[in-house]
What we know:
By secondary structure, the protein is an all-alpha fold. Among the domains are: 84-168, Helix Hairpins (Orthogonal Bundle); 181-250, Cytochrome Bc1 Complex, Chain D, domain 2. It contains nine helices and no strands. The longest helix has 26 residues, at 37-62. It is found in: Membrane.
Amino acid sequence: MHRGKGMKFVGDSRVPAERKPNIPKDYSEFPGKTEAFWPxxxxxxxxxxxxxxIGYLVLTIxxxxxxxxxxxxxxxxYIPLPDWYFLFLYQLLKYKYAAGDYVxxxxxxxxxxxxGALMLAPFLDxxxxxxxxxxxxxxxxxxxxxxxxxxxxxxSVVTHDWEKxxxxxxxxxxxxxQNDPGYQIYQQQSCVGCHGNTLTGGASGPSLIGTxxxxxxxxxxxxxxxxxxxxxxxxxxxxEELKQLAEFISKLEQK
Length: 255
C-alpha cells in the first residue's frame, strides 16, 4: 500500500484562497441600470436629503409659523383647526355617523380599517405584475384612499369659516391689573364663561376690550341684556359690585 493512496482532498470554492481588497464591481457594462451602493448611491441620497433639509430650514426662517392668542381654558367657543394634512379627519368628524354618539366610529373604526387595509395590501395582492391594470386590489385601495382624503380635505376647506377662525385666534395685546376689584368681580360672576378669562371674547360673548361704552351703558346692558347672546339680569351681584365692574370694563383699551 502506497502512502497517501485512497485519500481525497476536498476544497470549498466559497472560501477564497487569498484575501482581496473590497473593491466595488465594475458596472460599466450596465450603464444607467445599476451602481455600487457605497459610495455612489448613498452619496446621491445624502445630497438630495441635504437640499430638502436646507430648503425647509430656509422656509421656516423666511415664513414664520402663524401664532394665535394665548390658550384660554375658559373659552369654550374656540374651535381648533388641525394642520392641512389632518383636515380630512377633521371633516370626517363633522358627519352624523362619525361624531356625537358615534364618535368611536369616526375616531377609531374608520381610521383603523383604512390603515389596516394598507397593512394588509401586500397580503391581499401577491401578484408580481407592476402595471396598475393588472393589480385591481392594490390599485382599488390606493384610488379609494386617495379620492377619500382629497374630497374630505377639499370639503373641510370650503366649508370652514376662515374669517371667524381668524378673529377667534387673533392676538390682542391688552394688559390690566388682575388685582383690580372689578376684575375680581368679573371672575366671580358668569362673565368668564362667555367673554373669556382675558375679556377678549369666548363661547358666545364678544370682546370687552375697547368697547367705547360708558359705565352707565355697561350697567344697563348687564341689567337689561343685549341680543343675541346677552340675557337680562345676567349679573347676580349688588349694584355697588356692578358699578365697579362697569368702571373696570370701560377703562380697558387694546394696545
